[in-house]
Hints:
This protein is mainly α.
Amino acid sequence: MEVADFRDRMCDAAGHLFAQEGPEAFTLRRLAGELGVSPMTPYRYFKDKDEILAAVRARAFNRFSRMLEDAFAQRGDARARAAAACEAYIRFALEDPACYKLMFDLSQSDADYPELEKAASRARRTLTRHIHPLVDAGILEGDPERISRVFWAMLHGAVMLHLAGKLECDLRALLGEAFGALGKGFRSRK
Length: 190
């Protein structure tokens, strides 16, 4: 258990450093200094900087997925549950923008790190899960996977613009209008 605890401590410290300095400035030597251990200690637990970045990202994806899953598990109809998942998504991004950017704004290959690939896959499933009940209820029409990618692209784009300070309006109001327009596009035309 000691190894797992120390890896967790390293990931916490690394996540903090990534948030403060960005992945480019992060070094394992700096991480060792932050933890008060020898410069070689991180190499006993992680192969290199990319491996610790993958571990930090996997933890973030899992925390993100839990928030969305918990929101979706609330009682209510398909619309209410989808809205709760959307709000959880926004809340995660706004409460922890550094982790959000690490999750979605890097080109690190998930496939090279099984733990990261599993966590990222869980997040993708979680992001599409709330669309299926909307299609089943006849609120939306079409392929749920395709619809969810369209909604996610809109949500992610708006959140990133907001985080960059480029969105000159209220994020939630904009998303309400955008989702309303997208929803009309995916409604049954019968």
